[in-house]
Amino acid sequence: MPSSDVLIVGGGLHGCSVALHLAMRGASVTLVEKDYPGRHASGVNAGGVRSLGRHLAEVPLSMASMELWHRIEDLVDDDCGFESHGQVKLAESEADLEKCRARAEELRQAGFDHEEVIGEDELRDLVPAAAPHVVGGLVSRGDGAALPFRTVQAFRNKAERLGAQFVEGVAVEKIRRHGRIFVAQLTDGREFMAPVLVNAAGAWAGRIAESFGEVVPLEVVAPMLMITERRPPFLRPVVGATSRTLSFKQFGNGTVLIGGGYLGRADPDTNRTILDYPKLGENARTVRDLFPVMQDARIVRAWAGIEARMADGIPVIGPSATEDGLFHSFGYSLHGFQLGPICGSIIAELVSTGRTNLPTAPFSIGRFANQAA
């Protein structure tokens, strides 16, 4: 029975990041992915590298992760297509602008100043194609975007070069304890064992947690995206909206990615997603309203990924509350891509040393214990 120091279930960005950071610390690592790394949410999301608008508990992690993004090539030997042109949240009214001011003040009170309120003149400098009724916004200048699938593969490839083993195309059927060892039985009959187990199984992570007595309010969702034909260049930052659902960016080849969190339907048992076309239409109308230049744009493709969303909108990061040697990293709730580099480092720290300097208490799985009871 093959053995290693750590067994990771799930080959999305977070699982691959854990594998890399553990391998950098000299641990032997086996990662099992039922499809292929980046098959689901990690490889098909919008690629936003965003600190803008995060839950206050996530901000310290996001700031630390942004430092890694700005030197991502040093970490994984690939720039991951990362570009930093900022992210802007548009304000369409004075009421929206007041929300932006309140958010910036909330962050300032917490010791952060990366989100800045901008007026209409600066907004026009940053986003000249915005509709005439837009009056300002909120900007995080160090934010940007990367290519999701390329990023996952970069983390995977670097981890493999450092000795991590990837087992893909076969699912974990069940996990049991044999003394202090976790034994994972795969659907093809193989077994892998390790004294440490990392649950990074995304939309399927709740099942693993539940098998160890940790029931969590995890909803499986299918965030949808669209991409357009090529358009003349008109946008450099990634753009969102204060009072509407939107994530909007233009690639270097002219195509425009439209998303922001509209949901289709997900079936995690079959790996299938079903698009909700009325919601996609609403998403497209938001773009038309905010960017007149897009009124005649043609959508060429739409898709959805399968992802886990927690009831409180923030992930589960850290050790199990019931099982020694079990660590969780899941439930990133449609905004985990930017956190991938640092959360892999956090789990590796916790596995190796039992502690981390970053504040992870808000993400403890123990916060759901009373709900499960």
Automatic annotation (TrEMBL):
Keywords: Oxidoreductase. GO terms for cellular component: cytoplasm. One of its GO terms (molecular function) is sarcosine oxidase activity. Its EC number is 1.5.3.1. SUPFAM superfamilies: FAD/NAD(P)-binding domain (SSF51905). InterPro entries: FAD-dep_OxRdtase (IPR006076), FAD/NAD-bd_sf (IPR036188). The keyword rRNA-binding does not apply. Residues 5-350 form the FAD dependent oxidoreductase domain. The keyword Oxidoreductase applies. PANTHER family: SARCOSINE DEHYDROGENASE-RELATED. This is Sarcosine oxidase subunit beta. The lineage of its organism: Bacteria, Pseudomonadati, Pseudomonadota, Alphaproteobacteria, Hyphomicrobiales.
